[in-house]
Automatic annotation (TrEMBL):
<comment type="similarity">
    <text>Belongs to the YajC family.</text>
</comment>
<keyword id="KW-1133">Transmembrane helix</keyword>
<dbReference type="GO" id="GO:0015031">
    <property type="term" value="P:protein transport"/>
</dbReference>
<keyword id="KW-0811">Translocation</keyword>
<feature type="transmembrane region" description="Helical">
    <location>
        <begin position="23"/>
        <end position="41"/>
    </location>
</feature>
<keyword id="KW-0812">Transmembrane</keyword>
<keyword id="KW-0472">Membrane</keyword>
<keyword id="KW-0813">Transport</keyword>
<dbReference type="GO" id="GO:0005886">
    <property type="term" value="C:plasma membrane"/>
</dbReference>
<dbReference type="Pfam" id="PF02699">
    <property type="entry name" value="YajC"/>
</dbReference>
<keyword id="KW-0653">Protein transport</keyword>
<dbReference type="InterPro" id="IPR003849">
    <property type="entry name" value="Preprotein_translocase_YajC"/>
</dbReference>
<protein>
    <recommendedName>
        <fullName>Sec translocon accessory complex subunit YajC</fullName>
    </recommendedName>
</protein>
<keyword id="KW-1003">Cell membrane</keyword>
Length: 111
């Protein structure tokens, strides 16, 4: 016989889950998907497209930076590989995807 808690407002039995709005749950999942798309998936696809455009535009005579940090000049381009001159007539073969960036002409001579 409590004077402070009316019997109509008594606590729910143990194990009973509170009811949730299914629309709220649907909006929560939709918001999470939108967040993942705009902050993770979309920027990654943009970077992949930029890199594939870069790799596709490589040509003989371009000065490049490889993923390893090597600065070199392209001497030969194949379908999947390229040959670069690393200095002192040292030629190395790399996969095209190992190119990090293309440098402006004459950058290697300035260094």
């Amino acid at each position: 016989m409590s004077f402070f808690i009316p019997s109509a407002m008594a606590q729910a039995p143990a194990g009973a889950a509170p009811e949730s709005n299914p629309l709220f749950t649907l909006l929560l999942f939709g918001g999470m998907f939108a967040f993942m798309y705009f902050f993770i998936i979309r920027p990654q696809r943009k970077r992949q497209k930029e890199h594939s455009d870069l790799v596709g535009s490589l040509s003989k005579g371009d000065e490049v930076v490889m993923n390893s940090g090597l600065l070199a000049k392209i001497t030969k381009v194949d379908d999947e590989y390229l040959t670069v001159d690393a200095g002192n007539n040292t030629e190395l073969r790399f996969q095209k995807v190992a190119v990090h960036a293309v440098l402006p002409k004459g950058t290697i001579k300035k260094i």
